[in-house]
User: What shape does this take?
Amino acid sequence: EDKVVQSPLSLVVHEGDTVTLNCSYEVTNFRSLLWYKQEKKAPTFLFMLTSSGIEKKSGRLSSILDKKELFSILNITATQTGDSAVYLCAVLPSGGSYIPTFGRGTSLIVHP
Amino acid sequence: KAGVTQTPRYLIKTRGQQVTLSCSPISGHRSVSWYQQTPGQGLQFLFEYFSETQRNKGNFPGRFSGRQFSNSRSEMNVSTLELGDSALYLCASSSVGQETQYFGPGTRLLVL
Assistant: This one.
């Protein structure tokens, strides 16, 4: 059974701090790893990672994948209150089936 | 382009009743997936429809069913509701060959 574990489960920081969120996985046949941000309702897509060692960046957010050690990290620098959300990691298997496995998420609270 | 829409946004039902949720994908997207999100289990995959056919199915009982229409709109039905079915039901759409899913705002179902 595919498994995705995110850590920490929750994190409370102050504006301006840098945070690192972790996602480790066990999947039979790996295709890609995705990060989502969920604020109130709908998760919104952040990054898709398929290759090891290639950093994806979007503003203050960045993410990297290590396929050898089976984990990914999501970094947020100079955090803002608007970064407060649950960050979800999901792994997609290769092959014809599209059944993603999601982690439980990391709840990030950024205080002013 | 308009995003994924889901109706209704909130629903209260009693045990034993049945419910139908609706999802309209982004225009041009032919794949629609449904997820259940609860605090205890996180985000869990229910099923995926593509071109009116169920392509993948998660590990949920037969009380959970769905269908997709020729215009790609999808419905999800839950029969004989149980208290444990209280959850946020999310629908996501994607286009052919695209692994990124776009989520709707969800339907919050409360079963009393």
In short: Chain B touches chain A at residues 4, 31, 33, 42-45, 48, 55-56, 58, 88, 90, 99-106 (CB under 8 Å).
